[in-house]
Structure formats: C-alpha cells, structure tokens
Hints:
The complex is a heterodimer. By secondary structure, chain A is an alpha/beta fold. Chain A has 10 helices and 10 strands. By secondary structure, chain B is mostly helical. Chain B has helices spanning 2-19, 21-48, 53-77, 97-109, 112-122, 132-163, 167-197, 202-209, 216-225, 229-259, 276-279, 284-298, 300-320, 332-341, 347-351, 356-360, 365-395, 401-423, 444-462, 464-476, 479-510, 512-522. The two termini of chain B are 31 Å apart.
Amino acid sequence: MPEVKSVPPALEISGLTKSFGDTLAVNSVDLVVPRGSLFGLVGPNGAGKTTTLSMATGLLRPDSGTVSVHGVDVWTHLVESKRRIGVLTDGVRLFDRLTGLQLVTYAGLLSGMERAVVAERAADLLELFDLEAASGTLVVDYSAGMTKKIALACALIHAPEVLVLDEPFESVDPVSGANIRNILHGFVESGGTVIVSSHAMDLVQRMCDHVAVIADGRVLASGTTDEVRGSSTLEDRFVELVGGRRHGKGPEWLRIS
Amino acid sequence: MVAHLVRLRFRLLANALSRSPWQAVAVILGTMYGLFMLVLAVAGLFTLSFASDTAGRTVVVLGGAALIVGWTVLPLLSSGIDETVDPAKLATIPIPINTLILALAVSGVLGVPGIITTLATLATSLVWWQTPLIGVVAVFCGTIGALTCIVGSRMLAALTVQVFSGRRAREAKAVFILIPLILLGPAILGVSSLFRELSTVLPAIAEAIAWTPLGAIWAVPGDLALGNPGAAALHAVIGVGTLAGSTLVWRLALDRALERPATSTSVGSAQRGLGWFRVFPGTPTGAVAARALTYWFRDPRYALSLISVPLVPALVFFYTGASGDLTGLLFVGPVVAVLLGMSIYTDVSYDNTAFSLHLQTAVSGRADRWGRVIAVSVFAAPTTIALAVASVWASGSWDRLVGLLGVSLGLLLTGLALSSLVSGRFAFSVPTPGDNPLKSRPGGGFTLMLSMFASWTVLAVLTLPEMLLALIGFATDSAFLGWLALGTGLILGSALLIVGVRVGGALLENRGPEMLVQLQRQK
C-alpha cells in the first residue's frame, strides 16, 4: 500500500513493551492502523489489550517502543497527540458526582475548548446517545450502559481524529449498541479512524474492516478482517490462533442426565 | 466449614498485607499499640486486686460496659472493623446460617482487636486472684463479655446494613455520625471531670449499670466477692441472656440480609443546568475549579472536612473558653486556616482513577493545581477571615486583629501551597469515591499520617516569619509589627503558593502516567 508510506497512518505502534514487575504484559507489539479504518483489537482476558491501548493513548508510559498518531510521536508530543485522540478507557472511574451534562462539559472545557462550542456539542452528544432525559442526573446513579455512553460522549467532545475505545460495547443494551455502531461508521466514513477492543468476535467481524489478534502481549495476526479470518469465522480463527479450546462436554458430574 | 471460613479471613488479610508493606507495618504498629493497652489493662487490674472489693467491682463493671459500647458503636461509625469476610459476598454460597454465624464470630475473636479484648476480659480474673474460686468465675464471665462485644458489633453491623443500603442514606449517616464523634473528646473530658467530682457516686453508677445488659456480666465476680450470690446469679442470667439475645437478633438480621442483599438503589434527583460550570470562566482552570467546588458539596468525603470547620470553634471554646477567658478563641482562625489549607492534600487521591480524564485531555498541571486551589479558596478565605474577626470580637482584643489575620492567611496560603505540591506528586490510600468516608483500609492511613505530620512541620517552619512577627507584636502591643505580620503572611504565602502550584503542576505533568498507575492500585 504505497499511500500508507506517503501519508502517516492513523496509529503506528512499533516495539511497544511494558512489564509490571516480573510479568511481561506487552511484548514488543507492532501495529499499523490505517487512516479511515475501523480497527478491531481482539484477544483473551489479560492479553494486554488495555495495556497496549493505554500506552498508545499516552496514559501509561511504555518501557520501550514508540507510538505515533498521524505521524506525531505520542510520548514526545503528549498534548498535541492527545488533542487528536479520543479515549474510552475500560475500568476507570468517572467524575461521577457530576451530572451527565456537567461531565461532558467538563471534558470539553479541560480540552481547552470555548464554552459556547462545548455547550453546543454537549447538547448534540447527549441527544446522539439518547441521554437527554438523564442529563441532569448524577452519573453515579446511571446504569452501566448509560455510564459507558456518557464516557463515550466525553471521548468525542473535542472532535478527535482517532478514537480509541476499550470495550465500548460491554454492558450496553442492543439498541444503544446499534446506535453506537452507527455513530462509529459515520465517524469512519467522514475520514476518522476508530480502534475498538472487544471480546465479541461476531461484532468485530461484522463491524471492523481491520483486525489484530493479540495474546500474551504479542500480536498473533493483523490485517484486514478478511485476511485474518480467511475462510473460517473470526471466532474460529481466533480460537485456532490463541489455542486453549477444550473439546468434549465437560466432566461427567456436571451432566445432569 | 467454620475452619474454612476462618482460614479465608486470614488468607484475605495476608494477601492484602503482602500487596502493601506499609499496610503490614501499620498492622504491626496497631498490634503493638493494642498489646501496650493490654499490658496497661492487666497491670491496672492486678493493682486493683489490692483495693477494696467494691472498687474492683466498680471499675470492672464500668470498664466492661465501656468496652461493649466501644465494640458495638465503633464499627457502626467505620462501617465494620473487620469487613474482610463480608457476609454479602457469601450470599451466593450455600452455607447454613448457623455455621456462618459461628464462623463470623470465631473470625471476629481471632482478629487483633478480638484477641486483645478477650485477653483483657480474661485478665479481670486477676482482680480476684486472692480468692481463686471467684477468679475462675471471672474467667467465665470475661469470656462471655468478650463474646458479647464481638457478637454485639456483628449484630449492629448486620442490622444497619438494611437501614443504610441506599447511597444517600449511607452518605448522610457517615457525615452526621462524625459530629458526635468529634465532640466525643470534650464529652469525655466533661464526663471525667464530672467523675472526679462525683467519685463517691461512682459505685452507685456502677450499681445501676450492672443491671443493664452492658454491665451485668462484669458484676458477677464482684457480687460473689461482696457475698451476694443472689445478685450474682441474676446478673449472670442478664449477661448470658444478653449474649443469647444479641446472637439471635444477629442471626435474624443476617438471615434477612442474605435473602435481600443490599443493592445500591438509584434514586437520582435530576437537576438542571451546569451549576458551578456556569459561574467559573470557561477555561481548563475554571472547569477544574467548578468540578472541585461541586465535589465539595456533593461528595461526603469533602463534606466531612467542611463539617469539621464549625466544630473547631465549639471545640476550642470547650477546651479553653469554658473557664470564662475567651482569648483561647484566637486560635480558631489559624486552626481553621490549617485545616482548610491542607484539605486538598489528598485531592488527586480522592479523584481516584477518574483523574485519567485529566490525563486524556492533556490539561496542564498548573491549570489542575490552580483550579483546585481556587475552588477551596472560594469559601476558605472568607471563612478564615470571618472566624479570625469573630474570635477577636468575642474576646474583645481588637488590637490583635491585624496580626491574627496575617498568621491565619499566611497559614492558609502556605497550606494550600504545600497541598498543591504534595498532592501533585503522591497518591495516598484514601476512601474511594462512594466509600464510607470514615472507612480506613487496615494501615492505609499510615503513610498519609506520616506525610501529614511532615507537612505540618514544614508548614510551621514556612510560616515562622509571620507567626514570630505577630507574636512579638502581641507581646509588645506594637500595631506596626501586626501590619508587618499581615504583609509578610500575604506576600510570603502568595509567593509560596505560586511556587507550590508551579512545582506541583510540573510534577503532575511529568509524572501523570505514573500517578495514574498509583491511583489504579488504590482502586
């Protein structure tokens, strides 16, 4: 792909490594996410997905390796690169004593945006995610799915070029999930890039045009979704790559009759 | 099964300790403190054996009753001394209720406070060592007393789980319960001075308490020593009945709690608009200030520090002013200034991982620091000034106002400077958002306490200039030195605040990711 050479990719990770104590969480990961792609990152629990994404978005300092977003090195130009990235982090708290509207406004103002722009976009986002009715409710009283949606709104308010979403569909109801997918597709069509991590193979296969399989801190396969899955489904290919599939019906005592 | 659950308790404790060496240190220190108290108690009880039987009985009854009150009331305040084995978490596992009761009681006894309490209650037999038979009775009664302590605490904890299950109720409880807790000090002071005056009445008080569930069991050996076997039998019945009754109530409450596990009910009242976000300027600094100020009123952890402010004058008055000399009230301004200045000491730790939003949006460290300082200053500065003026007015020493303002504002500014610096660098183990604000992880507060003491020392040194000027001014009745103290306090304090914010902001910016890792560990 010659155009990738001339225009820097949306996200380029090379040799990214991170260890916590004796555990090597991410082991020399290389990834290229082309611009305008909807990129799926799949892997079993503890594969290093969240760690990789945290390092890629400037939230966790890598031991070694480089990350660049649109050709800008993330760890040497933190502010500039963070302006281009929208992040949904899995497993962190929100400032949940704010109302939904206040939280989104807060995220916008922190990014250094004008108050009028923030107000307009916050209203748009709340409408987009169907949270208008709950805009005055404290986020702490939101359901899990609503919390996910308000966090996503926070990630979008500064109009990033690259969206990095860690488990965006977890505990989101089917209707909201479909809405979020529509929003992401629209974002990609307009030239943005989306990177999602997920356990839901079906979803990734249907939704993403590119995919990378990561396990034990290493990238096992990466490319377009069709390349990676070949003739089988993504789920079967994933299990084949990662291993660990057990055959049989479980121990005898667990079978009722 | 009982042994299994008890083992689980120790496994959980050991795992928690191996994660944090400081926590282990704190648990060891706590144990040493407990042992020290135990030695004191044993020595005291032994000495008591040489006093009259009535004296021995009075002390044992009053002390024992206080012990039971302490055991049952304290966990109420701190949401359970020992939550390592949380019954709610066992709800899905089919354990017979009686087994669970026994396991929880045993694991309660086998904790550090449980062991020390048990040993102390057994030591009541030392009072009667000269008549070994009564000593043996005292061992039995002590065991029952210790069990009553533990079962009583479990019972109240299980009962209150039901009452305080909603988020708002829980938070309200935590905040409002603090007031009596803080006033406990002066109350004890008052009661003990009352005791000194009424020491002749003490045996009568003990006699009355001995007929309540709190004191009955402790009175039995004393009754025997005084030759009242009838009273002893009655007291024993009341004591054993108390233990049996509380076990029964505990069992009922636990049964109910397991059937209907406490879930956080969402009762959100909607509110319109942006609140403080509309008031502050639409900049990152203004946004942080608006967020922080919102939290000051909405997060019970902050509300706790707010509540202690009006209590300071009350406490100072109680300790110093009750005698009629009101000059002691002059301390109120500086004390509140220190409290408020250091109140943002754990601000980033209070954010917990929500702080990652600040990292994601690449907000500058300086904007983060200033925002938090501005939010607290909005009420801290007027409060400090008002209290200083009020204390001068109450004590009628207007000539000291200027110097006092210098010291108070100097302390406030310098305290804010230190807080901004330290909270930009260190994450402390504090109650997480939504937790009971009074809850402390075993040993979690130790590092915080150490660093607080260090910071207080630094604060004292840094504010030495204005304090000296003001004090010399007070001593020499020099108005000029007072004004000099005010000027020094304001200028030096502001300069320090700017330095603290800049250095703290730079630290936060450079070490943001490391800070987030630390915060994630607190989760």
